[in-house]
Amino acid sequence: MLNRTILQTAAILALSVSLATAQNAAPPKLPELPPIDQAALAKMKVEDLYKHLCATCHGADLNGGLAPSFIDGVWKHGSTDAEIARTILKGNISLGMTPWEGILTSDQIRSLIIFIREKEKEARVKGVSYPKPEPGKVTRTQLADYTIETVAEGLEIPWSIAFLPDGRKLVTERPGRLRIISKDDRLLPNPVANTPTVVVHGQGGLLDVVLHPDFRKNGWIYLAVADGTKKTIPGKKKPEVKALTAIVRGRLKGDRWTDTEWIWKGDPKFYDGSGAHFGSRIVFDKKGFLYFIVGERGALMEVQDLANPKGKIFRLHDDGRVPRDNPKFDQATAVPGVFSYGHRNPQGMARHPRTGRIYATEHGPRGGDELNLIQAGRNYGWPVITWGMNYNGTPLGKTHQEGMEQPNHFWVPSIATCGLDFYDGRKFRKWRNDLFVGALKQEEVRRLRLKDGKVVQEEVILKGLGRVRDVRSGPDGFLYVVLNKPDSVLRLVPAK
Prior knowledge:
- This protein is an alpha+beta fold.
- It folds into two domains: 4-125, Cytochrome Bc1 Complex, Chain D, domain 2 (Orthogonal Bundle); 139-494, Neuraminidase (6 Propeller), CATH 2.120.10.
- The protein contains seven helices and 24 strands.
- The longest helix has 20 residues, at 106-125.
């Protein structure tokens, strides 16, 4: 148990300083802290760290007391993460702030900052009104006003949408079905027949769908799926599962899938039973190269192992061949096709319509969701570096390390990024080339404006309609949103 004397000493000191300051007297010297049980401290969750070390002065609800509030937006000694970390580390004797240097680790300090940011955000958005569209009503945003139309309902965990040249739309359902929406927005009752068998397990199943850039000529449709086996074992309640993300292509003839070709599968030795983090988005670049994501599947240092496909973004020719100009790695056993590594669970990937650059959004743990510019051969750091912490509130990694990429933008607290696209239509001219980010946890669509690859503007344009699984700029110039709970597809149309 943490030594209570240290807590009492800090509280008494803070009160003494306040009284001394009010009387223009010299503040007392900070007394030497008694021994502390470092083993107990190391096991504490961030909520307990705050409760035991900070709440006496800053308030159990972070709203202040003997010391200032953490959630009123006023920071006397600097508001950046680095400045807050320095204040926690070094303290401020003249104001009665205990220095925690030598007691708290840098990871614990980072966890406290994330916790404070979570509570600060909660307080800041409390009572704030965000655009929650309603049928038949105009929704107003900073640059464009729109109305919503329902494209399809009655789906089951829709995951992605693609647009056929004849006006029909393809929608994947995670339980393994590929659905067709007619030109006049009718969800056809029967799914596409003969699609590849997928493993439906946890977050895995039938995931992304993308058309080949020359679809009009070759008809190829690409799917990201959870591939593997799922077997019922006598005497066991749960089936035995072995799965990993894979990429397959085929063609659509009427309402039937044909010409199946597997473009990429991992070595079976890397297939596992985790139900988490399949990644799976697909993008073609301007040269016709195919990029796709294999999520880290809950793994940690396997992500840094180039011989393991987990936590990697791949770049291949459209038929699965490895391009000669792909990055070369020192590790001789690197999996062929790896383009970048050190990713956690990216579930959004998009190509900038003007620059051709590839961007991806990535789920962090608790805090630290990321937007990254994907570059050849780069290491994006997971799990060595992160701007988040473990879900249970314990520290995880650090924020910087040489040779590892920093995100272009990150979110603390997490928004649970999923679905990503640049708007390249002409219906919303003021949104052109802006990046639209879906958020599962916050049930949001966010508009990001980039300048020189950096986020210079961020706006929530939609909130509270359901978990946003995908966002797509349609060839008709409208913006499409795929929702879970309720399982539906919406279309954003400029207000008249």
